[in-house]
Amino acid sequence: MCSIRFLSNAEIATALRPFYFVVHPDLFGRFPDQRAVNEESLKLLSAHLEALNKRRVLQSTPTILPFYLRSSQANNPGKMVRVPVERSADPKKVLKKILQSCDLSTEYLDKMPQAPERPERRRVNYTFTQQQQDDVFEDEFVIFQNINKARDDKTLNGWIKNNIDMALQRKNNLLGLREEIKKLEEKVIERLNLKDLRYECGWNVEHYRACLRSLESLANLHPKDLSHLENRILVFAAFTGISLDGHVMLFTGDVQHNWMDFIRNIPKHDAYLKKIPAYEEAGPLMVSPTGQFIAPSTCPGWILVDFITNNLTEARDRSTLYKSNKHVEVDLHEKCVTSLRLASLTKDDSVTPDKMIKCLERLLPESQLNFTGCDVFITHYYSVLSDGTIDDIVKLLGLEKCLHNHVEKLSGGEWKRLAIGEELITNPPVMIFDEPTSGLDSVSTIQVVKHLKDLAHSGRTIICVIHQLSSLVLEYFDDVYVLSNGQCIYNGSVEDIVPRFQEAGFYCPQYYNRADFILDVASGQRQGNLELLLSKARENIQMQDMIEKSFHAINASTNGELI
Questions:
Q1: Is 0.85 topped by the overall pTM?
Q2: Any idea where the ABC transporter domain is (predicted)?
Q3: CA torsion 31→34→35→39, rounded to 10°?
Q4: Residue 245: Cβ within 10 Å count
Q5: Collapsing DSSP states into helix, strand and coil, what is residue 377?
Q6: Distances (CA, A) of 419 to 144, 244, 403, 406, 422
Q7: Residue 296: closest CA among 495, 490, 481
């Protein structure tokens, strides 16, 4: 009986690697028309291969896709090849045709083992009806049971049941360590005359003890230098610097030598901190999530009055909702701590009151489980830390409807968001994405960028590298950094980019797409004074560099931005 060998995503990517090396849009930066053709064809091909992975053939894909192949000559845009897309359900056959049409090696595909012959299904005859019944339904029933079990394990209730004993065991194993840390804290605070000592790194308590011992060792060796810490709040964090609140932040991954270099220079950092307000850019008129009106001090009175008039209802609704949620959250928090007999219940700064309320409402019914003495931390992923702290999950990436789906059943946009979620497990303050929208259709692109924007507003700094920019995507960004031939020609807010280009003689036609205009200028297709743009960008960078000398990660004390 004939059978088809289905390929994994990794196998498909490996097989098509020679193809990507000659058609990737990044190879055609000097030829925008050819680049656009390859970009569009790759999107269609990606959707077709994704459908094949889900055991179906995408009939909407054209049977022929045009691609330009990279030329070895710098001034040659390359030749166009018409690549056939087979309507076969066999991925190997489809990939082989693609490679052969471009005269590329198919050696990897040829070496793949063939799928074993599928045996004939055994059938049982029922004499009372003479009908045949395929015993495959017995297998389907087993699969159905396994799926239900997997779903139970992935729910909050199932996950807690499977991990609560481990969390309690780990916590009990570290009771002595916690007592030691408490004594060390008191000793260090008294020795250095600190206002407070905090641990906001997210790593386990063993690492906190190591940090305290290192600081104690420095106090013994360099008592004079550590006098700069007197009457200050010291925080062990994910970076080294001075926060906007004036707290001293020490990166838990640094060595003692780096700590000492920074502590000796604290007076200089304080001086830079005082200069920051003079360089801060005024924010836009807006209504905050808590219902407050935020306006720059230079805003004209008539504009401010008009904005308040138009947004008064929305501000009042947000304020009422926030006050209500705040009281509901406090009430639910007390009930959870009491009902579940928790040692502590805390949350990540990026978890808003509405999400916290939903999570606490799901936790309350679990009072029959033995939570006694547990530390629960509400964040964006499931985990049991080595010190027994339980991390819960809050849906941040809009994947709730995919919770029970197999990974291979996800769409392109869902795949991208899943990959982002995997990186969120370590709760990084800064995330960098290289072409996060490559190969996606317009709808999936907007979904991915929107959730990146949400991540930025949850307290992270998100940096994206995007080569093919659309006007819709551009609207989601707070700041842009435009490169031309490896040099920065603009860095700043999205609203200021067209006026800045006009100052240098680059004029955007009326009703012209702003994103296309930016790409035109960057690729040298518009007439203007590029040197003037370069000089203004350098001035802006030098000003920002002066601010950055005061601390390495200002984002920890401010709302994140998507740049």
A1: no
A2: 221-510
A3: 180
A4: 10
A5: strand
A6: 27, 32, 14, 14, 5
A7: 495
- The Cα–Cα gap between 478 and 172 comes to 46
Location of structure tokens 């990660």: 553
Please work out, in degrees rounded to the nearest 5, the angle formed at the alpha carbon of residue 155 by the alpha carbons of 392 and 398: 70
3.90.870.10, 3.30.200.20, 3.40.50.1950, 3.40.50.300: CATH of 410-557: 3.40.50.300
The ranges assigned to domains in the chain are 9-110, 174-279, 287-392, 410-557
List per-residue pLDDT tens for the chain, 563 residues long: 445 556 777 778 778 888 888 888 777 777 888 888 888 888 888 878 877 776 677 777 788 888 988 887 777 778 888 888 887 778 888 888 888 888 888 888 887 766 555 454 444 444 444 443 444 344 444 444 454 444 444 455 666 667 767 776 767 777 787 788 888 888 889 888 898 988 877 666 777 888 888 888 888 888 888 888 889 999 888 778 888 788 898 887 777 888 888 889 888 888 887 777 665 666 677 888 778 888 877 778 888 888 888 888 888 888 888 888 878 888 888 888 888 888 788 887 767 787 888 888 877 877 666 677 777 877 765 555 544 444 443 344 555 556 556 656 666 666 666 677 666 655 677 888 888 777 666 777 777 788 778 777 766 788 888 877 777 788 888 888 888 887 888 888 888 888 888 888 888 877 677 888 888 888 888 888 888 888 877 776 655 554 454 434 444 443 344 44
Residue 285 zone, left/alpha/beta (φ > 0; ψ -120 to 50; rest): beta
Please give the Cα distance from 444 to 474 (Å, whole number): 15
Residues forming a β-bridge with 376: 345, 390
Do residues 25 and 39 make contact, with C-beta atoms less than 8 angstroms apart?
yes
Token pair for residue 394?
């809050």
List residues bridging with 383 in a β-sheet.
391
Tokens 């420095």 sit at which residue? 218
